Amino acid sequence: MKNRYLGNSGLAVSRVCLGTMTFGNKSWGCDESASQALLDAYLDAGGNFIDTADLYAETVSESILGNILKGKDRDSLVIASKCWFPVGDTPNARGLSRKHIVEACEASLKRMQLDHIDLYQIHGPDPYTPIEETMSALDDLVRSGKVRYIGCSNLYAWQIVKANAVARQCNYAPFISGQYLYNLIRRDIETEILPACVDQGMGILCWSPLASGLLTGKYRGVDIPDPGLRFKEVGEILNDRFIWKEALELVDLVCEIGQDLGKSPVTVALSWILKDYAITSVLAGARNVEQLAPSLESGEWDLPDEQCERLTAKLPREHGYPCDWMKIALLPNFTKTEFEPNRALRFPPLIN
Ligand SMILES: NC(=O)c1ccc[n+]([C@@H]2O[C@H](COP(=O)([O-])OP(=O)(O)OC[C@H]3O[C@@H](n4cnc5c(N)ncnc54)[C@H](OP(=O)(O)O)[C@@H]3O)[C@@H](O)[C@H]2O)c1
Fold first, then answer.
1. How many CB atoms lie within 10 A of CB 239?
2. 200-219 pLDDT per residue, tens
3. pTM of the model
4. Closest by CA position to 200, among listed 8, 345, 342
5. Number of helices and strands (H, E) in the chain?
6. What is the pLDDT of residues 225-275, one digit of tens each?
7. What are the chain's domains?
8. Which protein residues are within 6 Å of ligand 1, measured from CB?
9. Which residue, 275, 251, 231, is CA-closest to 2?
10. C or N terminus of the chain, fewer CB within 10 Å?
């Protein structure tokens, strides 16, 4: 399994991270013994990076992870978790207050039977808590040794930059990673979030890299998915998020390219994401070892340039304003040097 540094940090992680949202999920997930088999297959493939959250399976994912990590070489692993979603009915059992962050982290450590979390991420933005309070609480967790690094997920780009500016100003630990929805169908982050993370020296971890299973190609020609599959159980969320005419045509192209190259569409779709060195890891989700196998293959296999370009061109991201304006006003006037300096490389429309 190939490794990458997580942003500007010195933390080396596998480019395929094991997602654990399926662990303990009764409707579209797997039980503890299947979770154990997934972990074993992932470690056998040389992976070192595991992502969970207190939310997953209503905290059961973390408990299962704690049980199945027993006997493993914990120090060789990078274990990530998250807080923010409600874990109880009371007003403070959610969000990013100092009270909740500290209590959530301690509860996660207890469930996972660990003494520290390597990457602790805020799962979303809390508009009700000052970012200074959040960054100070996260920094305390780092200084106390309960957490090694911090990251964020699902923040707006301006919030990422503001949070890290506060951290710099106050000498707090900054975010070293952003965890975001990114796949061949949903490329929203290319406009603002990906450039913000690159600017901040943050690695990017991609969730739902297979569009919750759509990019496997298994729904082609299927009207109603089978029970137990994600698109059956939470279809009201996923249909709007991933399914429209051009997206389905993109799935066809992924399958066609997979067939030409003798690879699973899964391996092709994940390897397309990993072509971009701004991306650190894809988060692989699976219900069983058979599903995980082609995801693990993308930890080693690189998509050839030609097929990568075909996929990139199939459903290009429309950046809208102000990118449109810059195409007219900035491009003809500014790009006059021999090559683009690094600091401009992630500035749409200077790229793509
Ligand atoms: N930060 C966040 O807000 C956030 C949000 C979501 C997820 N995450 C993280 O990202 C991880 C991955 O997310 P995800 O599960 O949505 O990823 P995904 O890769 O888009 O979807 C995984 C699902 O696709 C299907 N699948 C995977 N491989 C397959 C194969 N070879 N053949 C057929 N079906 C296959 C399985 O679902 P079915 O069998 O049900 O079809 C599997 O559970 C999670 O575990 C979690 O760690 C984070």
1. 12
2. 999 999 999 999 999 999 99
3. 0.97
4. 8
5. 14, 10
6. 999 999 999 998 999 999 999 999 999 999 999 999 999 999 999 999 999
7. 3-316 (3.20.20.100), 318-352 (no CATH)
8. 19-22, 28, 51, 123, 153-154, 179, 207-213, 216, 218, 229-230, 266, 283, 285-287, 291, 294
9. 275
10. C
